[in-house]
Design goal:
By secondary structure, the chain is an alpha/beta fold. It is 40% helix and 15% strand. The chain is built from 4 helices and 6 strands, in the order E-E-H-E-E-H-E-H-E-H. The chain has helices at residues 20-29, 56-64, 81-93, 109-128; strands at 11-12, 18-19, 41-46, 49-52, 72-74, 106-107. Strands 1-4-3-5 form a 4-stranded mixed β-sheet. Strands 2-6 form a two-stranded parallel ribbon. Strand 3 and strand 4 (49-52) form a beta hairpin. The chain is globular. The termini are far apart.
């Protein structure tokens, strides 16, 4: 699939919570009519999926604004694919398959720190201890 053909419907998140405070901060500056200052969202092919590796809050803000696509770029970073596989599997377990599915997963900063950040740290630590 050509990156120009990708829409939010084609993208699988790798994160299953959003911070309400981060979303409010993005919504403050985000202008859906002018994406010239919108840094492209990074994507990676993962088996038969295209996953969003970062920028979930910005992606959700664009979705809220009614956009079906924003600038995307193929992520060239070397990523821990085992870690991302677990993130994608966790998203599926939480019924998060698209950006839209994050609608009921916006939580307070405190909850985000415990439910998402600590989860990520524990996952990362599990790879360090192997």
């Amino acid at each position: 699939m050509n990156i120009k053909d990708i829409t939010f419907k084609n993208i699988h998140p790798s994160q299953f919570y959003l911070s309400k405070a981060k979303l409010e901060a993005v919504l403050f500056w985000f202008n859906p009519h002018d994406l010239s200052n919108f840094a492209p969202l990074p994507l990676k092919r993962f088996g038969d999926k295209i996953i969003l590796t970062d920028g979930h809050t910005r992606a959700y803000a664009a979705y809220l604004a009614g956009l079906d696509r924003v600038p995307f770029v193929w992520d060239v970073d070397q990523l821990n694919w085992e870690l991302y596989a677990k993130c994608v599997a966790a998203c599926q377990k939480e019924n998060v398959f698209t950006i839209q599915d994050l609608s009921n997963r916006i939580i307070s900063s405190k909850d985000y720190a415990t439910k998402w950040i600590k989860w990520c740290e524990a996952l990362q630590e599990s790879f360090t201890n192997e």
